[in-house]
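In the current project phase, we have settled on a layout for protein records. A sample record is reproduced below.
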Amino acid sequence: MKERIFFEPGTLPPETEQLRSEIREFLASEQVSGGFTPVADSWVSGADPAFSRKLGERGWLGMAVPKEYGGAERTALERFVVIEELLAAGAPVAAHWIADRQIAPGLLQHGTEEQKRRFLPGIASGRTLFAIGLSEPDSGSDLASVRTKATRTEGGWLVEGTKIWTSGAHLAHAVVALVRTGPAGESRHEGLSQMIVTLPDDGVEIRPIRSLDGGHHFNETVFTGAFVPDDMVLGTVGDGWRQVTGELAYERSGPERFLSTALLLRLLAARDDADPRAVGALTARLWTLRQASIAVAVQLSQGAAPDTAAAVVKDLGTRFEREVIDAARATGVRPDLASADPFPGSSPSPSSARPATPCAAAPTRSCAASSREPWE
């Protein structure tokens, strides 16, 4: 019998409206002053560390992190409002996205006291950026097939292997990698661990994966004997699978799963050559997806783990975004990032497609390290 999924209706508290007004005022001011140019898919391709620090100064990063660790100690639903407005505006949030969305909750749940005090204040201020190393070459989305290995050595572990599609690794101060530390067992889920690898590191090479338009946000991250001290193991050795799957609800259910093309939909709706029925249908689906995402956010705020519901939001959101692009292309307009018309300029171009192989000839670790800031 198939599992039935029910999204319990949820609402955002009335007090979040004041917060919504504040973020909208900030974003409008930033656009007028030239602080950023709206782009589609901004949580992947719109990296601006300076903009991330501005958000940190206003308490809009690490919002659910306790004050003792530098956070704002606000609710998950207040955070939802902030990220919803940032994404809808096409603001450049990619630099801090992984750290704020996944690493901070992971540290709070599994991190040692030392790890929390070392990393969380920087995440909340926008000054400590993270990447996450899950996918591997030829493995697709099968996380259980992890081949990157960590071998025991005096005082820690030596990591060998390759991660791919590591968004923002060229800007990051650290990458949290899922590695194999023991036998896979019958389920293949045993023997996996999460480790924090600080950057730059002589044992880590970051190779850009360039998009067809020359953009750079994905990377291939190669570990060649990178040393990870025992105090940089996140959580329990061998418990990595449970930890990672517990984090996926944060990764799968957020507004980024259906708002990446919101900017394009808004521009499409203003065009005379757009099919009004298609625009109406897409707008209705956008609202439905938003309600489903809010329902998951409410469950997360209550301490639940709605993994299946979150996966449904991600799947339906991905399909929705593709259909927005298809509706835009039906007008006869093709992506053109050089165009003065924001409609083709905002349409996700071939840059959103992943090329088959990394651009090994592009600058690697040495050029990326110069853009990083100290932990302090």
About this structure: The mean pLDDT is 85. DSSP finds 13 helices and eight strands in the chain.
